[in-house]
């Protein structure tokens, strides 16, 4: 049984339909978790779809857990997770299947391609590379391990759900592999580029809602896994985010307040997570 899941929130229907059409011949079921109301009539005629929610936004972690649980009930051993902005290759699942027996594999992930990204694209010659972190979209996930780890952390709601999970499974001795032949077309936010003297910088222009969760969860993830190099210097990252927001983005006041609130609330969430014995931090 091959299962893929897509998390949907106010989608670009053309891109979503493109995504579903590419997935259709590769899997037996496509779970669609709605974090917003959608016009389902736009998806009429597309079979293999199973809607898992009522359109209320319960966050990315809850959506991913629902998709993984659905795949598990159908008897799948791995599940492909996507968001609405990602379009996979025509042989994505087939390609991943060749690598799922790699040593202690928890997550398989592709190269991420965004044709709007002006930064130099990384290249690799190996078939696969062990890495520290990956985004959830486009990843192939070991369901048995997901159950063992009690899923993605609902408390994070949205940002850093993926990095926290990567850090957690790696802390248990499991591995994240990038499959270098796999390339996914994925749009990484509304990135814009700027210049400070001789320094080239960019901002993602996230709204205040996202600024809050990025800030809070950046700090909490580091505190949970302080040995992870990719998570280092969370407060420096936060002040850099604040500076660039003030210099280059709109709604500066609203976003600034959201960032500062995220800093203040990070301690509370950290204590909450550390206090849950079943999480094993």
Write up this protein:
With 281 residues, this protein is α/β, with parallel strands linked by helices. It folds into two domains: 3-186, Spore Coat Polysaccharide Biosynthesis Protein SpsA, Chain A (Alpha-Beta Complex); 192-279, no CATH class. Helices cover 37% and strands 22% of the residues. The chain contains eight helices and eleven strands. The strands form two sheets. Strands 1, 2, 3, 4, 5, 6, 7, 8 and 9 form a nine-stranded mixed beta sheet that branches. A two-stranded antiparallel sheet has the order 10-11. α6 packs parallel to α8 (252-274) and α7 packs antiparallel against α8. The longest helix has 23 residues, at 252-274. It is globular and about 50 Å long. The mean pLDDT is 92.
What about the largest sheet? Answer: 9 strands, mixed
Using the CA coordinates, give the radius of gyration.
19 Å
Structural class: alpha/beta
Q: Total domains, how many?
A: 2
Q: What sequence of helices (H) and strands (E) makes up the elements?
A: EHEEHEEHEEEHHEEEHHH
């Amino acid at each position: 049984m091959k299962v893929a899941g897509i998390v949907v929130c106010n989608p670009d229907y053309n891109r979503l339909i493109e995504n579903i059409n590419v997935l259709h011949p590769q899997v037996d079921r496509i779970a669609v978790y709605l974090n917003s109301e959608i016009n389902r009539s736009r998806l009429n005629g597309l079979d293999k779809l199973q809607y898992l929610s009522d359109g209320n936004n319960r966050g990315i972690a809850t959506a991913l857990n629902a998709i993984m649980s659905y795949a598990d009930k159908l008897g799948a051993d791995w599940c492909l997770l996507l968001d609405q902005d990602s379009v996979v290759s025509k042989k994505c699942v087939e390609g991943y299947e060749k690598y799922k027996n790699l040593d202690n594999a928890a997550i398989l992930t592709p190269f991420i391609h965004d044709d709007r990204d002006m930064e130099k694209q990384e290249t690799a010659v190996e078939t696969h590379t062990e890495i520290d972190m990956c985004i959830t979209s486009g990843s192939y996930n070991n369901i048995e391990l997901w159950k063992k780890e009690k899923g993605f952390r609902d408390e994070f709601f949205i940002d850093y759900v993926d990095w926290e999970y990567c850090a957690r499974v790696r802390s248990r001795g499991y591995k994240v592999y990038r499959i270098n032949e796999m390339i996914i077309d994925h749009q990484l936010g509304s990135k814009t580029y700027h210049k400070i003297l001789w320094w080239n910088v960019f901002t993602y222009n996230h709204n205040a809602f996202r600024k809050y969760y990025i800030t809070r969860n950046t700090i909490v993830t580091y505190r949970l896994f302080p040995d992870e190099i990719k998570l280092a210097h969370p407060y420096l990252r936060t002040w850099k985010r604040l500076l660039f927001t003030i210099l280059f983005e709109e709604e500066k006041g609203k976003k600034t307040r959201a960032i500062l609130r995220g800093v203040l609330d990070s301690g509370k969430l950290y204590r909450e997570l550390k206090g849950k014995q079943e999480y094993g931090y």
